[in-house]
Amino acid sequence: MRRLLDENKAKRGIVVGGGYIGLEMAEALIRRGLEVSLITRSPEVMGTLDDDMGHLVSEALRKLGVTLYLEETLTGFETAKGKIAGVVTDKRSLSADIVILGLGVKPNTALAKAAGIPLGEKGSIRVNGRMETGLSGIWAAGDCAESFHLVSRKPFYIALGTVANRQGRVAGINLGGGYATFPGVVGTAVTKICEAEVARTGLQEGELRKLGIEWVSAVIKSRTKAGYFPGAGDITVKVLAEKGSGRLLGGQIVGAEGSAKRIDTLATALHAGFTVEEMINLDLGYAPPFSPVWDPVVTAARAAEKLL
Amino acid sequence: MRRLLDENKAKRGIVVGGGYIGLEMAEALIRRGLEVSLITRSPEVMGTLDDDMGHLVSEALRKLGVTLYLEETLTGFETAKGKIAGVVTDKRSLSADIVILGLGVKPNTALAKAAGIPLGEKGSIRVNGRMETGLSGIWAAGDCAESFHLVSRKPFYIALGTVANRQGRVAGINLGGGYATFPGVVGTAVTKICEAEVARTGLQEGELRKLGIEWVSAVIKSRTKAGYFPGAGDITVKVLAEKGSGRLLGGQIVGAEGSAKRIDTLATALHAGFTVEEMINLDLGYAPPFSPVWDPVVTAARAAEKLL
């Protein structure tokens, strides 16, 4: 891409898609000095967050100078002299020197389907706990394979490198004559767009609605370090818990440096099946360079617990 | 302290004690341009780590220019014109313009003892799960109060701000007529000495030996971000697990920026009572700016699992 941009002296870049790839490409184009626009069909970027948290990411992008066209659909391209010249949406035409499409992932399972291997969620290959497909002796792992969601307790499709690695380890052990199982995922993902860190785990409101699970949610603002410590930045944490029982259902984080990996505490708590009440007394690390005395994740759990 | 140092033009600082306060003060003196020596009775600084991990912190201090006197005991002070002029150890005399003592914490419970309130570990005030003392209607919380260790399942004394805050919340709710319990701690602590981040949770080898718990341990070296990502730094993680069962017993981390708060994953796993095998498939956040695909904490758990 570097050569393409240098040669063409590209000035205007358009990214279609507000997911992980779209955001990372938007950052890459900004860093190269392009004027960047991003088009997405969703009300906010990062559709894997709830809209209120996605809005914070949209705002961070606008602050970086990205022009957002939300709730717009790409309908076509414009070309000139055999090269891309712009995109057309259901609302406007925009000129562009480079267009990047980050439109999501579909498992490439045509071969498996033709071989009669049973498919599952979103056309991914159905596997058992050992990553064996419905055809004995045939194994699958990675972006083509189905996972199991440990919070919804249902089959789930997610195409992420960590999941592929863990599935691959299990499939490999079993293929080699050993015994290993892959229990499933909780849907954790993190990304960074310039200085803004974004993280999510578990189920979001849209998923809970579909599953018929009733929930409470709390959003809190805190700081990444002790308030008085140099370099402390803002962090917003949302925690979702099952109404009544208080079982943790998911969490989302948007904030400055030091925010994203805090999602691991929520992810581990989801694996453990903790309630938000059980999270209040988690013995997490505190020192002024790293956190307020009450870690923002725990502060969010406390806020959610009050709403049960 | 600022005024004291400016007025005295202090050049040589001596810190006695290799714990959290000692290390933080050593950093403060270095940042002010003093020549710093640190004296501790232990074989390495940070006695709350195992010696192999403490050694990494000792090395980090030496790299910063701190002269370490390990396995030495302070026996006296030297003064001149009514001011401090140096310290005497069992091995040498060292001149100094400022001496800082970070000798640890003892609970100040003389009043409680005189009132007939039963004391516990290290003279701290014994409390029940609601933070009520042995005298009905009298409550205790904070550095004077005993905790319960969730890994050893025994009474435990630890004087940290996070624990004091959590205990205070529980005592306050109960005093106000509500109902709350404090389940206990897992012994998490983090600190930073210039660029080196240090973290620990659970039980260390010395504690396990005393408790008669058999363990395996694994130490792995990894990177704080994807290896190819700018700014990736070294991280060393040690994980201790119960021999046979694989139950996680503790963990220690020493590394560059982005290392310390990873202890929260281990701390949450300790609260959950996870085995290292259960930790292998934890769905932790991955993106190149934050972590290798296999989080260092999980890599350490995998290494420990192979030794069970």
What does this structure look like?
The structure is a homodimer of 308-residue chains. Helix content of chain A is 27%, strand content 25%. The first copy, chain A, has three domains: 2-101, FAD/NAD(P)-binding domain (3-Layer(bba) Sandwich); 111-175, FAD/NAD(P)-binding domain, CATH 3.50.50; 189-307, FAD/NAD(P)-binding domain (3-Layer(bba) Sandwich), CATH 3.50.50. The longest helix of chain A is centred in the middle third of the chain and has 15 residues, at 161-175. In chain A, the strands form four sheets. The first copy, chain A, has a five-stranded antiparallel beta sheet with strand order 10-11-14-13-12, sandwiched between helices. The first copy, chain A, has nine helices and 14 strands. Chain A has helices at residues 2-8, 20-31, 51-63, 110-114, 161-175, 205-211, 263-272, 276-280, 296-305; strands spanning 12-16, 35-39, 67-69, 74-80, 83-89, 93-95, 98-101, 147-149, 154-156, 189-193, 196-202, 215-223, 234-242, 248-255. Chain A is an alpha+beta fold. At the A-B interface, α5, β10, β11 and α7 of A face α5, β10, β11 and α7 of B.
